UniProtKB/TrEMBL annotation:
Coarse class of the protein's main subcellular location: Golgi
InterPro entries assigned: Glyco_trans_11
GO biological process terms on file: carbohydrate metabolic process
Protein's name in the database: L-Fucosyltransferase
Organism: Adineta steineri
Family, as annotated: Belongs to the glycosyltransferase 11 family.
Its membrane topology: Single-pass type II membrane protein
GO molecular function annotation: galactoside 2-alpha-L-fucosyltransferase activity
Major enzyme class: transferase
Lineage: Eukaryota, Metazoa, Spiralia, Gnathifera, Rotifera
Length: 345
């Protein structure tokens, strides 16, 4: 497998960039606190599971930020995401009571527009007044183009999809037990936040952690699942590139992965006690990723940053490859556009 390495320019390291982010947030808070609610980006329903909901929230956030709108998301969706993330959407997010009062205001009703999107990037939404004043702009579908929120990458990773302290504490035991077992040393990690914990892992004992997500159960019947050769080729690539590479595997088929990877000393499966949220967080703490199809794996790669190897087996459903895959996703060959077509991107 030949892979051209395109380093990610998205990972935030410098203090100056972090200060810039904080100043940007304060400026936005001042602007939104001083203005009336002129438009609302709204999510009422979701199609699909956790990864799809992340795409919807990220896209809604990106559009609200771009057009100085507020944001309203049904409580059920908020609670599902808050089971894993801090989900700091302030100051855009408005309460249910505020939203209801606006929608029931007969003297000055807000115009409601519903837009359906799945994977394609809707370029017209970047134009001024694409969401006019007095509008409730409702998102339906999947909204799986990262370009709808690419401008706010720092905020997505540092404020919104930030793991809760309880999950960070739980997944830290995975690494602590590894180092105690392998080195006879029990490290004391400072779990201030996701980024600081990730930095500690990257500096500890010169270990390079590579996350592997293997999705199988619902993908095998529809021919979306990756084959074993892809996984081993990707492991071989990282092993040659990083001499002290260690791999963490999360999967919906742990029995299969246990048989596949056997007792390799540098490949570890996440514990059975881990939830899907624990799996997502522990893989996002890795420096690089190997992912198979699906939005859950996509978000693992996006939140982890670094190099991300993605299999071409999974059809993105996009009309253009770059709508779904950031330029730092390293893909083995062309990507199928749709399951019902031989067309490739």
């Amino acid at each position: 497998m030949k892979i051209k390495v395109v380093p990610s320019t998205s990972v935030i390291n410098s203090k100056n960039q972090n200060i810039s982010l904080e100043q940007n947030i304060k400026l936005r808070q001042n602007i939104l606190s001083d203005q009336k609610i002129i438009c609302i980006v709204y999510i009422q329903n979701t199609n699909g599971r956790f990864g799809n909901r992340m795409f919807l929230i990220a896209s809604a956030y990106g559009l609200a930020r771009l057009h100085f709108c507020h944001l309203y998301i049904e409580l059920e969706i908020i609670n599902k995401l808050k089971s894993v993330f801090i989900l700091d959407l302030s100051p855009l997010l408005i309460s249910s009571s505020t939203f209801k009062s606006l929608t029931r205001n007969r003297s000055k009703p807000m115009n409601r527009i519903t837009k359906i999107a799945h994977c394609d990037y809707i370029t017209t939404l970047t134009r001024p007044n694409a969401i006019p004043p007095g509008t409730i702009f409702e998102l339906e579908g999947h909204w799986q183009s990262y370009l709808h929120f690419a401008k706010y990458y720092e905020e997505i990773r540092q404020r919104i999809f930030v793991p809760s302290q309880s999950i960070l504490k739980k997944v830290s035991t995975f690494f602590i037990e590894y180092y105690q077992r392998q080195l006879g040393y029990r490290p004391q990690f400072v779990l201030e936040n996701h980024q600081s914990f990730k930095k500690q892992l990257s500096q500890f004992n010169s270990t390079t952690w590579i996350g592997i997500h293997v999705r199988r159960s619902d993908f095998i019947p529809i021919n979306y699942s990756s084959n074993d050769a892809y996984l081993f080729d990707a492991i071989k690539y990282y092993s040659a590139r990083y001499p002290n590479a260690h791999f963490i595997v999360a999967s919906d088929d742990k029995v299969y992965c246990k048989k596949l990877f056997g007792d390799r000393s540098n490949i570890f499966l996440t514990p059975r006690s881990f939830s899907f949220g624990d799996d997502l967080v522990v893989l996002s703490l890795c420096q690089h990723s190997i992912i198979t199809g699906g939005t859950f794996g996509w978000w693992i790669g996006y939140l982890a940053g670094g190099e991300v190897i993605h299999d071409k087996t999974y059809p993105s459903g996009c009309s253009r490859r770059e709508y779904y895959y950031p330029p730092w996703f390293l893909i083995d060959g062309n990507v199928r556009a749709h399951i019902t077509s031989e067309y490739i991107l």
